[in-house]
């Protein structure tokens, strides 16, 4: 298996089912990854970066030979579309699980692919390789050999076209082309399987319109915009495109669909795509099993498109922060738990939740790999039931240790426009409200702070060497209140509470504080406006049950070091306890630019002594397969530049110092 994470586990699950032994490869940082532990054999690839390990073709083929493998599955990443790797596998005497290298060479050039498909009478948007021939605006610039939406940019006027084309050419190190930009469109794809005997079977369509950075985060089948007649037209066009390109294997024909029902071919993706799970749910077929069957030279067992059973929706849970330009999040995943999951990595026998993940409790997310942690799929008789089931499970999931896009996914699934099927590729741009945290009410944050403080006190009482059975905060004579100071979603706050002689909550409050000027004399003194009474039904180190004005709710608290992860029906919040006597931290030089995340310096565009404008691009960091720009916050002169291309930096590390003008 020449890939890692979720897709490796997915392929291994089917291999175990059909009696095929498996070989995993792993980098230095993936030594204890789930996909390694689940394989029959595993071969180490020296290094940590993707380029040095999972994309190093010679090392992968050598590993396969060393393990005695007779076939290579490339996963669903870059190598799955690489004609040279496909040819190298075959030349090494092994079976390539994918389309022939000759087909991949054609698909590797998008303009050539579009030309062949257009000749077969499939609708295609025109392409312009010479920017001077663009007839109008806006246009979308694409790399001719790009995959996964990388390097794409919309240009709306002629004045910026030449600069944008040159910039993308540098970024992707290759040719680019332009095509008319069609706004308010849906991204629809038709998953297909084609065998060497000429059979081509489409599996309905998938709606992939909810995207960020031209990459999908919510996928579903069937599409709410496609009726039976349009589905037939899309599937017919997909079959024609597949045959025109000589495609064999598992893939997806991608289209743009406008509000009038007109559609245009985008590309044929020659991989088992990340969203194949929704198709498995509604068709009942194991697509990996069929993919392996085709690779062995077998024929497809079904005479035509299988009927669609119910509705399936998938979300991609990623380690990234949507509210901060999708900044990737690295660290230890202390807990990864989704409730009510019915199965993983294969078609479900009946409607329910399916979780395909590449991580487990204790997994470490680093800067080198894709930020996707898992896919959660809901399959139900109707679209409304699937969306409701999926949103509920996500909201109740425990995702501790890294920032994720969970709240955005929940808000999207519950949004009235999504529920109505009113979605297109601009959905996230039109609805900024979905970027708000799920736990947004002030009262909900206060309850989480109180629960965390009570759980911490219960933990201390349980481990106390003497009188551990006494209620937390109990005194013979009433005195000061119990307090804790947290840094949370609303900033630093103090939570305080008083207990009566019976161990019952007598009063509580949460109020903002300034961590730079903590008034130790004032902490613990109850404010005049205490919050409404709450009854503590029970409190332990990991579970607090509160009765809030007659309504009982349970709050789960998971503490790791000085951080508390609090989950309740109101949402989830992370609280970091602030020490009352913090150690002094070293002060950064004025106008220092520090790394916002761990990553590798990809490009450095300035030199020491250079004068820069406010907003000018200074350098870029690459983390989790995405490039992140670092701009000058103000005009000035580059006084110091301690990094260079290829250097790896950690969060908070100094990147540059500017002397302001």
From TrEMBL:
Describe the location of the ATP-grasp domain by residue ranges: 109-296
Q: Which UniProt keywords apply?
A: ATP-binding, Biotin, Ligase, Nucleotide-binding
Q: Which cofactor does it need?
A: biotin
Checking SMART domains in the record gives: Biotin_carb_C
Tell me which SUPFAM superfamilies the record gives: Glutathione synthetase ATP-binding domain-like (SSF56059), PreATP-grasp domain (SSF52440), Rudiment single hybrid motif (SSF51246), Single hybrid motif (SSF51230)
Q: What is one Pfam family matched by this protein?
A: Biotin_lipoyl
Q: Which residues form the Biotin carboxylation domain?
A: 1-433
Span of domain Lipoyl-binding? 578-659
Query: Would you tell me the protein name for this molecule?
Result: Acetyl/propionyl-CoA carboxylase subuit alpha
The organism named in the record is Actinoplanes palleronii
């Amino acid at each position: 298996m020449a890939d890692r994470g979720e897709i490796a586990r997915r392929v291994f699950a089917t291999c175990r089912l059909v009696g095929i032994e498996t070989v995993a490869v792993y980098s230095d940082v993936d030594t204890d990854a789930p996909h390694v532990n689940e394989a029959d054999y595993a071969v180490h690839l020296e290094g940590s970066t993707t380029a040095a390990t999972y994309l190093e073709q010679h090392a992968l083929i050598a590993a396969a030979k060393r393990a005695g493998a007779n076939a290579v599955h490339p996963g669903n990443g870059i190598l799955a579309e690489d004609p040279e790797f496909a040819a190298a596998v075959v030349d090494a005497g092994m079976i390539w699980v994918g389309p022939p290298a000759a087909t991949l060479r054609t698909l590797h050039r998008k303009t050539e692919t579009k030309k062949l498909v257009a000749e077969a009478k499939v609708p295609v948007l025109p392409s312009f390789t010479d920017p001077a021939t663009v007839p109008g605006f806006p246009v979308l610039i694409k790399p001719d050999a790009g995959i996964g939406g990388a390097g794409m940019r919309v240009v709306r006027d002629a004045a910026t076209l030449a600069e944008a084309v040159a910039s993308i050419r540098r970024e992707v190190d290759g040719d680019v082309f332009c095509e008319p930009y069609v706004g308010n469109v849906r991204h629809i794809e038709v998953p297909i399987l084609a065998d060497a005997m000429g059979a081509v079977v489409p599996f309905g369509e998938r709606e992939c319109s909810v995207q960020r950075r031209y990459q999908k985060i919510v996928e579903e089948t069937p599409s709410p915009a496609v009726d039976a007649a349009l589905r037939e037209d899309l599937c017919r066009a997909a079959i024609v495109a597949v045959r025109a390109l000589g495609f064999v294997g598992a893939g997806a024909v991608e289209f743009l669909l406008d509000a009038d029902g007109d559609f245009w071919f985008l590309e044929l993706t020659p991989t088992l795509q990340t969203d194949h799970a929704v198709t498995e749910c509604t068709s009942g077929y194991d697509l990996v099993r069929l993919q392996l069957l085709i690779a062995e030279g077998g024929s497809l067992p079904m005479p035509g498109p299988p009927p669609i059973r119910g509705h399936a929706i998938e979300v991609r849970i990623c380690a990234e922060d949507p509210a901060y330009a999708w900044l990737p999040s690295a660290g230890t995943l202390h807990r990864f738990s989704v409730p009510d999951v019915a199965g993983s990595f294969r078609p479900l026998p009946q409607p329910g939740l399916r979780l395909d993940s590449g991580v487990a409790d204790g997994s470490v997310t680093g800067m080198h790999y894709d930020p996707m942690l898992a896919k959660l799929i809901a399959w139900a008789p109707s679209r409304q039931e699937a969306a409701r089931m999926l949103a509920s499970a996500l909201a109740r999931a425990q995702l501790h240790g890294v920032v994720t896009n969970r709240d955005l996914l929940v808000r999207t699934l519950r949004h009235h426009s999504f529920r109505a099927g009113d979605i297109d590729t601009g959905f996230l741009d039109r609805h900024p409200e979905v970027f708000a945290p799920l736990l947004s009410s002030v009262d909900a944050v206060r309850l989480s702070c109180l629960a965390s403080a009570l759980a911490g006190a219960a933990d201390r009482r349980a481990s106390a060497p003497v009188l551990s059975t006494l209620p937390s905060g109990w005194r013979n004579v009433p005195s000061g209140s119990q307090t804790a100071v947290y840094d949370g979603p609303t900033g630093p706050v103090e939570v305080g509470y008083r207990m009566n002689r019976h161990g019952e909550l007598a009063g509580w409050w949460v109020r903002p504080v300034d961590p730079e000027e903590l008034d130790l004399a004032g902490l613990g003194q109850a404010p005049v406006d205490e919050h409404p009474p709450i009854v503590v039904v029970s409190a332990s180190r990991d579970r607090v049950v509160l009765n809030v004005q007659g309504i009982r709710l349970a709050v789960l608290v998971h503490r790791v070091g000085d951080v508390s992860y609090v989950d309740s029906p109101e949402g989830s919040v992370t609280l970091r306890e602030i020490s009352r006597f913090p150690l002094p931290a070293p002060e950064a030089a004025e106008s220092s630019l520090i790394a916002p995340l761990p990553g590798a310096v990809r490009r450095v565009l300035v030199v020491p002594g250079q004068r820069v404008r406010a907003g000018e691009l200074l350098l870029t960091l690459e983390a989790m397969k995405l490039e992140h720009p670092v701009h000058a916050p103000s005009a000035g002169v580059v006084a110091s530049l301690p990094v260079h291309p290829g250097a790896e930096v950690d969060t908070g590390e100094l990147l540059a110092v500017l002397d302001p003008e």
